[in-house]
Amino acid sequence: MGNGSADEQGSIPRTQVSPKTLRRLEHASGGLANSSIGAMEQRLPWFRRLPADQRASVLLVTQTGVSNFVSWLQDPTEAIRLTAEAFRSAPKDLSQWVSLRQTVEMVRAAIDVFEQQLPDLAEDESERTLLTEAILRYTREIAFAAATSYAAAAESRGAWDARLEALVVDGIVRGDTEESLLSRAAALGWEPSSEATVLVGNAPSDDPPSIVYQVRSRAARAGRSVLLGVQGSRLVVVFGEPSDRRAGRESATSITEAFGEGPVVVGPTVSSLTEAHRSASDAMSALRAVVAWPAAPRPVPAEDLLPERALAGDPEAERQLIEKIMLPLVDAGSALMETVDTYLEVGGVLESCARQLYVHPNTVRYRLRRVSEITGRTLTNPRDALILRTALAVGRLAKSRGLW
Fold it and tell me: Maximum Cα–Cα distance for the chain, whole Å?
């Protein structure tokens, strides 16, 4: 039985490189980094097109990675900290001009250089094997660090986008018409010329990420672009025109399902985001007044709540009742006004209305159709009848005060 050492007999493999090899690696680190950059320039056409300052930033990351590899060989437990430092040394906008896929391509090119040059720095075959295994483990950590760095950047951009989106929605609610609002919305992917409609209601939960996911997933299925903001317990959603008009009409209701319990009000559709405040203002006013209509559908158009809004003291609702209903009927002639008044007074009984007016029932039917064509409201519908009655009352009160 021989008395040689375990290392001489080869029964126990070496686990650390010699100090001499570590010094060689330290001296060669600059050359390894430059060789890695050279390999990237040779193999990656997109890398050659990068500006000089961006290539220099990649070189800095590579040099840090090589330097940390030497430190890691001395203490592998420091892998996570050292590999993370390689990416912390990079400019904050690195992920904006180099994608994760391109980063993987650069790491692969650097690995090839390491595998070719590092073994030559080893003392013996045992160290060559050790360095080869170390390269594989370290580059794996580098890959994970890259993925973590890009994920953190994505989360940061997502948080910034959410704050920017909240500012845009808040500006719409307040009535900001500054150019900055449009530029912010454009930065979020909103088409400036797109139509806009505002939905307001209760937020479904106290978890903003969950709310965002629910709204966006339904909007995506509906083919609509959206901006949303949670203001306390209230959820405000601005959605754009659908890619398919017919599908868009059917899908507006699906977005409502992302709201919490309680009424949801939809404002009028406006031609662009610059006019979205009008839709938001009507929707907010209607949300305050909807309590007076317990049987309101969900969602309920803000214009269907004009009577309740007028009773609550909303001057905009009074204006719309006068301009959209009262004045068109006045312009159409006294016969239509008289028919509306009489039809409402007799409780919607057509024959009784005809007798009161001393006309044929068909004449009443014709006049009712004309009223519907002019105002968009049908007297035979109880809700429309209430809106027409309120419009006439508001209009006459305004006229008595000389407002029109």
Answer: 133
Preceding omega of 268 cis (within 30 degrees of 0): no
Q: At what angle do helices 125-174 and 100-117 cross, to 10 degrees?
A: 170
Domain membership of residue 170 (yes or no) is: no
In which order are the strands placed within the sheet that holds 234-240? 226-231, 234-240, 196-202, 265-266, 300-301
End-to-end CA distance of the chain: 119
Q: By the 8 A CB rule, do 73 and 29 touch? A: no
Selection from 285, 296, 234 nearest residue 263 by Cα:
296
From CA 59, how far away is CA 37, in angstroms rounded?
7
Q: Tell me, what amino acid is at 393?
A: A
For residue 341, which phi and psi values (nearest 5 degrees)?
-60, -45
Instruction: Say if residues 277 and 175 touch (Cβ distance below 8 Å).
Output: yes
- 194 contacts 272 by C-beta, under 8 angstroms: yes
Same domain as 321, residue 302? no
Whether 87 maps to a domain, the answer reads: yes
Q: Which structural domain range is residue 275 located in?
A: 179-310
Pairwise CA distance, residues 182 & 177, whole Å: 8
Span 325-375, pLDDT tens digits: 999 999 998 999 999 999 999 999 999 999 999 999 999 999 999 999 999
Count how many Cα atoms sit within 13 Å of the Cα of residue 114 in the half-sphere of its side chain.
25
With the C-alpha atoms ordered 97, 99, 102, 107, is the resulting torsion angle positive or negative?
Answer: positive
Pair 36, 102 in one domain: yes
pTM for the model stands at 0.61
Q: How many helices (H) and strands (E) does the chain have?
A: 19, 5
One-letter amino acid identity for 166?
A: A
> Which amino acid appears at position 17 of this protein?
V
